[in-house]
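PROTEIN DATA CARD
Card holder: Polysaccharide deacetylase family protein
Chain length: 502
Origin: Fusibacter ferrireducens
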Amino acid sequence: MIVFEILRKINRYIKQSKKSKAGIYLSPVRRIERVYPLLNERVCAMTFDDGPSALPPNPPRSNATLASASSQMDNMSNGVGSLGLTETLMTILEKYNAVGTFDCIGGTQENYPDKRGKLHTAKWGGTAHDHYPDFERDQFAGILNQPELGKSVLQRGHEMANHGGRHVIFGPMRLIYDSRTSLSSLESVLEDLTLFHNFAHEQFNHTATFSRPPHYIDGIKGGLNAYDVYAMMGYQYMAASFDGGGWKPSKGQYNEDVEAMVSPLRKSLDADANTLNGQIIFQKDGCNMSLQTPIADALEPQLQILKEKGYKVIGVGELVKRSPFEDYGEGHAHFEDARTLINAGFIVAYKNNSFQPQRILTFGELVAMTTPKDLFVALTALKTKQLRVDFDYAKWHVDKIEAAFVKVRTTHPYYWMFKYAKKQGYLGQYMDQWDIDDSMDAHRCIQYLDHVLKAHQVELNTDQQQERARLCSELMKMATPSLKRVEILPLLKATLESAKLL
Ligand SMILES: [Zn+2]
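Structure generated from the sequence above:
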């Protein structure tokens, strides 16, 4: 177990260094661990991985109020009797007016042949694969096996994310999961996520927009990673910042395991009541490594503590809509403009979900900030023929950019953004001479955004002209040769609004 903890620490270190590297380029996909705290209220989110599960909690709960709260869903547990784990968690959440984010799987029954794994280790649910909720009991969990339960998660007002069709890791991970089978390519990861995505869409009319890779394993064979596949799916990478602890192997005593989930939360909030504001708490909708579900008894005291400290637990989607970035939020200059842009699907944040308002704005960034993230979904729809978006829409986008030529190397993260801008007519001829990494002064910014307006044949009325003149003169007052990212926001937003892109 000590070795296991050390490996986890190494893994955490690798993740940290990845995170700082993820702050270099703007990206359609952001890895969202936590968001900037809201100004006048305390909110946090909770994600529940690996369900939905119809099996009852282990050990069973004898809470009479919960049992009687069991609705028509009682029949759904396929003879297992009492309230299933997911229903138990939903019932507790609802008692506290809390919304959960259920990070669901499709089903793990396809993960055979396999051998039973060793309890109290990461392999407890199978050696080559995971089996949820347990080895040989796959049929009790996942939306493919328990569609009514999946539907009820949404009907009861909770959120649902895509945790993989079969909970197979995206790529090999020698460090911890050396004996695991992993998916073999980007296409197979896409196929696995699509299995879940399409089922949820067809059966529940739900369009997933968040995903967390099984076991957080990012790497995909061929030098690719989760960001690549999420860009194609139109997803955000849902991470978490506070560990609810429900995955850990038992300390030996169930009550101790429950307390181990409650006390870190209590201690953190006693030290600083605002500390969880904007955070995402990692929880399980399944067993820990010892085949028990302490979450079923820890959730209520956790919610009680949060309530006492004035917290509201909301869905991750809702949280991110209200406070999209990790380092920039309510109370900061022009934050509302940035929030409008990102919620409308423009690529304005970095991979690590920072906004970095004080960073110098480059030409490449300005072009990226006028690109809709849907472009990436459209491109894949055509390439893979897996149509998650309307085919004509995809074809229109790709036709428009196919013939374009720009002086940006094809492997540059902004390549498609430049192709798009060129074909849209955003780039004046002389702009071909600007370097992608050139910092932008007010003159150049105004020139580029004027081109955006021209490309959309916008005729401004007198009021709009006056407002634009005001915003431009504000920008010209920034005497520095290079603008900061935050300074372009008002004019950028006004431009996209005038062009009817917002
Ligand atoms: Zn999982």
